[in-house]
Amino acid sequence: MARPAQALIDLEAIRHNYREARRLAPQTRAFAIVKANAYGHGAVRVAQALAAEADGFGVACIEEALELRESGISNRIVLLEGIFTPDEMELAGNAGLDLVLHTPEQLEWLLQARLARPLDVMLKVDTGMHRLGFTPSDVPAVFTRLRACAQVDNITLMTHFARADEAGVDVTLQQLTRFHTAIRGLTAPVSLANSAGILAWPQSHGDWIRPGLMLYGASPMDDGSAQARLKPAMTLRSALIAVRELHAGEHVGYGGRFRCETTTRVGVVAMGYADGYPRHAGNGTPVLLNGQRTHLIGRVSMDMLTIDLGRQEARVGDPVELWGSQVLATEVAQHATTIPYTLFTGITRRVPLVYR
Ligand SMILES: *Cc1c(COP(=O)(O)O)cnc(C)c1O
Description:
Layout: E1 6-9, H1 11-24, E2 29-33, H2 35-39, H3 43-50, E3 56-59, H4 62-70, E4 76-79, H5 88-95, E5 98-101, H6 104-112, E6 119-124, H7 139-147, E7 152-158, H8 171-182, E8 190-191, H9 195-200, E9 208-209, E10 234-246, E11 251-252, E12 258-259, E13 264-269, E14 286-289, E15 292-295, E16 305-308, E17 319-323, H10 329-335, H11 340-346, E18 353-355
Parallel strand pairs: 1-18, 2-3, 2-9, 3-4, 4-5, 5-6, 6-7, 7-8
Antiparallel strand pairs: 1-10, 10-13, 10-17, 11-12, 13-16, 14-15, 14-17
The chain binds pyridoxal-5'-phosphate (PLP).
């Protein structure tokens, strides 16, 4: 039999979460964000599951877009960082991709290209994230040049939020104001909202939403709000491969980080940091054993981790869930001082993705 570590992917949950995004922002269309192999869930399978409903998809680079085109996805696909070098322009043109434009360099590459047919573009405005995008005062001139360009079909005006996951913080409102000031007088659809914008900032919904993390059933909100409307799509699971009984005073694993205070039954699970389970998950990180909560003890190693069996009559082969709908990836992330985004995207190729 094979090593029991698997990530079970529920495509129906992803469809549910997509519909939830649309239900929250019913006047909008949506780019379902499937970059980074659909946050570890398998980009081709996720895109195929959403192709009939999603207005478009969002990816980080041409390679990710072409993988979808080659698997038969004909929906709009936007390159969220645009192209990286001018020679990608032709590839993007041939594949009919939408381009984000965020630098003067990208603008020149587009204006100088000779494309078989015009492309749709998203003109990105830096409203305070200060990562990508044109300075607000430059936006009208860039917009005018794009409008006059035969290579350009539809223009969407976009921005990205830095702190939309913090419900009480007015930075998002300032970004909204800057955006609307920057685009005053320009007639074009707008796109602002990532998952946090969709969930917590209805005034940001605009014309095109860009749900990412929420599609996979995790709330990006720092207070965990909105989790109840989402269905976790990934269950990371494995099984016990050894059961031990240790005496008081004995230590478990590398560094002896956990010391047994009394006689302790310990289970060894086939799941380690080389599978993508976070090495920084501390003693006490929740896991599900035979459907009941228990927790990690000792350091996570490359291929294994150790859990407290408590009073359970657990045996070799018993099922363990590292995260899913009962132990949320968000909870595990908190115990590892990280975010669910890194857990999902960190699943390695040693872990088979199994679809249901
Ligand atoms: C990744 C990304 C998103 C999705 O963000 P989530 O927080 O996962 O919803 C939206 N917009 C852009 C530009 C992105 O790069």
